[in-house]
Design brief:
By secondary structure, the chain is α/β, with parallel strands linked by helices. The protein has helices at 19-27, 36-76, 85-95, 112-115, 120-127, 145-154, 178-186, 274-283, 327-335, 370-380, 396-404, 430-435, 441-447, 481-490, 521-524, 526-533, and strands spanning 99-101, 135-139, 160-165, 191-196, 215-218, 236-241, 262-267, 289-294, 309-310, 316-320, 338-339, 345-349, 386-390, 411-415, 469-474, 509-514, 536-541, 544-545.
Amino acid sequence: MNTIFPDIQLRALKPPMQPAELLKTLRFNVSLTSSQEINCFIQEAEHDLNLYDKLIQHIKIKKAALKNDITRYRSLQSPIRKLPPETLRRIFGIAAGPNQCGRPCHGRGTSIFRLSSVCTRWREVALNSPELWANISIYMDLGAIRPLELCLRRSQQHPLSLQLDPGWDRAQAGTPISELFRLLLEHSRRWQHLDVRTVDFFAFDGIGEMPLLQSVKCCPFAGEIMPFGNAPNLRQLQILQEFHDVGEPVDLTSLPWSTLRHLDLVDTEHYWDREAIVECFRRGNKLQSFVYRHESEEYPSIRTRNEHCVVSNIESLSLELPNPDSFNYVLSEMIQAVTLPSLVNFTISCTPPEPYGEPNYIKFFMAWPGNVFSEFMERSKCNLTTLALKGIPLSESKLMPLLQLTPSLHTFILHEFLATEDAWDDDDFEDRKNKYQTVTESFLNRLAVSPLTADPFLSRNPLLPKLKWFTLRVQSHFDADAAFVELVKSRWVYPTGDLPFHDMETLRTVELHVLNRSLPKKVYEPLKAVDADGMMISVFGNGKRIV
């Protein structure tokens, strides 16, 4: 009898032959005189086989039920159940992305709609946290109305962050889509952050007061952008002048200069000449940061005036000039027209789009404007603390004079030419990559601190004595592994008070990314001890971390 499953009654318990007899019979061509007993056994065996299938299915169901019970009982012991509502609210705020209203979009993280449906306690926390409902991404279709109403109601009076996605055009102006704009305009007094890069601005006709609005991202339509007269606290503005826009470019002189602190301009089709950009410096006497991205293949049509525009408040300047044809020219035009005495953060980048055709597509016309940069630094008398040079074809001889002008740097980021996150792997471009090798052994030696035992008459003050954070991205031609290791060790091993040069800082964080080449682990082995001692070190070779 089956003691484990007593309800299972097996029949084929005794076969008509022993295994040896069955095997012997199968080997010889023996005719059976009677097959009734065999037929009966076959029927009983098929019956038992069906029972075993049911038994297996029953066991699978029991296993699934037990696993489910284990999960639920473990959930009762989960530490998250012991967290107070205030902590849960903080976690939700970190985990939840924008609340998607309308057509779902991938890659937006977990919305508060999903978190609030996990359990009663989580739902209670979510419903009592209006700030979690105030981050809204709206796809402009009819399906967005209901979730938008929920978000607006549950966010109560909390300031709103709104992103309007594509999906609406003028042809829908008379449809219920206008209900979305009516809902949004009713809450304009709560707008804090607004991304309307895909919406025609006539939809905002009759907009009310926006006293909380602090930042806007917008793409002009027919040369127009949304009105800012009712936004007295607007501090940050990004204007993306895209190639598909029609009409005249936005008149930059009409921006709310009295309130702006951070301006980000993206020009894809040379809508603004250099004079218009420099006019931003002249008018933006309260700007603290300025980002300019120039993607056009055209040269500026109007040269700037000879006088220098002094902007005393700008602390951060980022020039993103991805077109090699005009890179050096635009850079020269920009920095020779301004004087920035308060500048502390400076980023210059050139990340060319993937070329088509022959490798010689990428050409940098004009030389690196080293003299212009030197004049800019001497004229501004600023103390740069952060410098990022990304994708610029600089030789060591061009880089050294630049760094000698920036002794106060504590953060230095250097990406060699084409040493970007999505660097091309085509062999056709290897020669061009290798042509612009910036990071060499002699360069790293100039950053290193001489040992205490070195001849004091031969020792030199190292470049960048204040350096604390150092990042390098280099091509496979990098051949200064040992020099890099010695540099890192020399900027760490001495106690701060015993450094051989006055007022030296120790490195705190170092990153090295070598593309398309594996690194010798033995050479970098000493850095593991330095990392264990307190410095944060990350060394990657061909995408694999070795330290």
